[in-house]
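Replying to the earlier thread about multi-chain prediction with a worked example.

Input:
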Amino acid sequence: MGWADNLKRSLLVKGGVHPPASKLAAGVKISDGPKPKRVLIPLSQHVGAACEPLVEKGDRVLLGQKIGDSDSYISAPVHSSVSGEVTSIQRFPHPSGRDVLTVEISSDGEDAPAPGLGPAPDPLSMEPGEIRRRVREGGIVGLGGAVFPTHVKLSPPSDRPIEAVIVNGAECEPFLTGDYRLMLERGQDIIHGARIIRRAVGAERIIIAIEQTGPKAIAAMREAVPDDGIEVFILPGIYPQGAEKTLVKTVLGREVPSGGLPMDVGAIVDNVGTCAAISELFLTGMPLTRRIVTVAGDGVAGRANLEVRIGTVVREVIDFCGGLSGDPGKVILGGPMMGLAQYTMDVPVTKATGGILVFKKGSVFCEEPGHFSCIRCGRCVRRCPMNLRPYLLGSYSDAGMWDHLEDLYINDCMECGSCAYICPTKNPLVQLIKVGKEGFNRRKRKMEALAEKASEEAEEKENAGKTA
Amino acid sequence: MPTVGKWDDSAVSPHLHERGQTIERAMLDVLIALMPAAVWAVIVFGFQAFVVMVVSVATAMLTELVMRWILGRKATLHDLSAVLTGLLLAFLLPVATPLWVVAIGSFIAVAVGKELFGGLGKNIFNPALFGRIAIMISPLFIYTTKFVKPFWWRGIGFFTPIQAFIENEGGQRIVYKTIAGTPLDAVSHATPLSLIQNGRIVVDTTTGATPVGATWLTSTGAPGHHSLFLGLRSGSIGEVSVLLLLLGGLYLIYRRTIDWRIPVGVLGGALLLFVVEWEQPLYQMLAGGLFLGAFYMATDWVTSPVTRRGKWIYAVGIGVCIGLVRLHTPWPEGVAISILTWNVLTVAIDRYTARARFGAVKKPLFNRIPPVTGSSRQTE
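Result:
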């Protein structure tokens, strides 16, 4: 890779920032996480409708047993990650900051598997519908952090032909190394999973997209790739390269329409972790009950890439890695750019948890933001991958001018944080935009409801006039 | 339940910010870039130039402190913006400007030009230019019309202060005197641009180039191109040395504090007009405050467009305006008024040059923004 290649790649992407990679755990092999005595499995770990519990307090559950499901299309069931007894079903703290209905299970340590779980025969010649059904039953969601139910992605309508399956190995968030390790250690699984996806959507190409900052992963995947329409695509090392729309733009040169999905431009994007999970589901029958979590930061003694059972309490994972070192200032689930800071360490690892980062008090990650004081340097405008104007979104949100936010396409914002990262005045732009979205969408719903009510009233009047 | 973080402002992502890029750093960069020109100004115009700068900066800082206290805002002297405004205003004034006029200009620049608009970031006009124009369109104008020769202090004394008196005999007239009583008329001189404006001179390009140390005027009475480039000429305190302003400007571009598009656009736009009308383009480019304006005033973050296309429109617009003012109006110089004019247009430029929305099916050349409906502020 010469400088000319790098230049060409960097020209592919408009916007984006270069946070220091800080991939502290890049050299640490994936290992098994703690064996928890007790797991907390939230019934909402995905985008879409929350699940209803299928078990009751006192029930015995087995490893891989479905314990929550929903009738909604956009939803995914949840499974027990241990065998043991359901001790309670109540609201517990959730990484999102809300309290969420959660199944608490005390483990018997036996890991007795649920009956009926077994390898699927020949998934590569299976009917697409059957693949989707199994993926849904397996509780597979996007493991890159967005946790969108995968079976929905695998069901493009017939007027949306899928040309390429893009396997997302960008992992542009600093610190996180789970996907990187996965590509180094389980390349075959990723490719097997990608082939199952390709079969389900009827695509021809598989493109494995990896950032140029991970040459080892590129080499490993190139080695693992057999020659049947599977390619490795090298991405520029820019944040947020792993964001779905940015990725499709870089790889295929097409822009996903606002409010649309990659399937609108003939692509489907799945994270390498999701591919590996699908592969495991079809090879062993085990649904999504574990995920790879990177533990790092100066506030935790060890650093690791752990395969953690979903529902393990974060505190237990931190203790497993040697415990806290020093006074913790912030515990972040996910990466430092988009991750969620926690107010307690008693939240469980969910399907969305790609990293547990602990930072000491006083570290750069624990800085207090300033008040909104934009000086119009314009960096945020040039760096925004969605071509938005964050400084105006911030001003209008700060002033509560919700109506103006529509013209600025506030709902296009994916909250990647590039604007706030680059801001010389340290404006809390993402927070303001979140507030703005809330205000704008609430007002929009209200206006729509008012308009509906008005039209109903007018209709009633008309009808009343007719009868009289 | 033990608490590890606070579920408040600090808990919202991103938890990481770029290091080393702050307002303070940007302001400091501009101040560093202006230092060579400031030192040169003191060499050329004597200790009085230093006094003018100090008075201007001190007044700006004091004004900001007091204004923010009155308006109930947090003190922000540490962001150095008041220092920069003060220094830039001093750069725009002739060295013989009475100190009380300097102080008034600096006060207006910060109090009205910046704080009354809402403080740094919300001002429409470049504060320093605002202060300069405020003096220009007021009765104080008369105090800023006298320019002295470079090295006027030779033989009189480096530390000689200058004082101004108004004489009312036979019409209002301003007279400058040194503290020793010597009238300064003996050392005053027209600026290169006013010479050209009056149609008195044509630069002698063959003999025009005079080396430093030799006489700085050409045979026709105007400074030669080399004198203009190096800064051996009369003029406002900070505008005289194109070379040093250019060096500072390149530093700012290297530091990415300013966007290269703006100085290139301003200089290019002005050059375009001078070349099209063939009005001694090189002389026009080097004379006056063109470089000071292009690198340090038009590039102000707050008052220039944020989009790249917008920056080009704004910068070339300023350049062309400067040319038009210089060539087709009675004023010899047009940098300040051109930049202030385009400052006003900045918001509109930003509005129409925003990049098309990601994923837009049709990408219009200019952003068509629907008129805003409804009240401007809704609480619900």
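The radius of gyration of chain A is 23 Å.

Feel free to reuse this layout for your own posts.
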